[in-house]
Amino acid sequence: MESQIHKIHQQLMNKEISCTKLVQERLDLLKSNTHNTVNSLLDTLALGLAAKVDAKIANGQEIGLLEGIPFGIKDVYMVQGTYTTASSDLLKKYKSPYTATAIQKLLDAGAIPLVKENCDSFGHGSSSENTIFGAVKNAINPDLVSGGSSGGSAVNVAKDFTVFSIGGDTGGSVRQPAGYNKIYGLKPTYGRISRFGLMAYTSSTDCVGPITKSIEDIRIILNVMSGKDIKDQTTYQSKTISEQNILNADGIKTVGYFKNFIETDAIDVKVKADFLSAIEKIKAKGIEVKELDFFESDTLVSTYYTLAMAETASNLSRLDGTNYGNRIEGANLKDTYSITRSDNFSEETKRRIVGGNQVLSQGFSDEIYLKGLNLRDQISENFEKDFKEVDVILSPVTPNSPPKIGDSLKDPLAMYLSDAYTVGFSLGQLPTLTVPQGTETGLQITAAKNNEELVLKFANFLKHTI
């Protein structure tokens, strides 16, 4: 299968290129790029690790598949000794005291981190414009947004600045920018990869996700990062997915799609036409396609943002300048807390904190928050019913094409609605992959929990079908 990781591995082993040269070339590209993808370069660390790989090869030693492969890290992951800013004023001088489990597993496999990548501050956004480092520009058309919140990660992969990047997906933050930049992005089953060391946005849906240019590279990285972690009690042990197992999709007999996602005025006419065209191509291959009933997209969005805002208000309550972040002194302690948070949080982050505190407050929590929890349970039950009828579910990634830079900041509601087709799968904690085929912003493939293998199988099938 097509794979940048395999290709570079062979080039290193054959001494066609040195690891130091490979890393330096990518660092130079990152340094000179005009897409605002970089929060900080890890050049000293990267070049030191590259020299060690070159020494191993020179001594005739075998290197692992990921050893020497350059990658990027969304700037919400802890990497010991590096700045971890969450693209915010509050943490712009914060250095990580430890390394996230998922990142450590990649480091242990020999992958080389190049860059901490620009993103929406604390993951709050769908466009990567809510950042102190400047809006991330789309890899294909720099006048458009890159998608969010993992916009810098997606653009770096799309532009070949990194071989792969590690984003974070809460309600679509890997899948949507992958679609906007025409690459692959996976949100795995909740708990498959440890969240330890990932700054919490919505703890009940946060997922570590790889972004790549190929299905095979998604598989490789997923296998390395997966597994139980005593530091994250939501994790579980999962089976390794072999390359051979995703080459044959004969076991997939039935595909479903949500008709209310397609039969709505909210979807762009071309996105709808392209999606239905993809469905016809799938049918032509002898696969049965079923229309499924699901919650209206506005219900999904309101449920997701009710819970997401509540959890972010709780998670960010610790950031008051006392233990973390850029403290601004006021006349008294209460004033210090107020000024520190008001001046250091972005407008979007403050909007979400205020909204979260509102739905958790006395008199509202029963009426709004508990109703959101109940709806989340209903959504999960609906998915369980659906996967008794179909093997996988196909959907557009977004209802519309990427907006121009600046438009989302003028209309936060429109930004929230761009997540209409991604948040449901997050609430269901299901594995979902964006593939760069089918519509202008790609397609999403979803399967039942812990069935990433089936998702990758169907992605491989679609690559040769659409």
From TrEMBL:
Residue stretches making up the Amidase domain: 25-456
Pfam families registered for this protein in UniProt: Amidase (PF01425)
SUPFAM superfamilies: Amidase signature (AS) enzymes
Record-given protein name: Amidase family protein
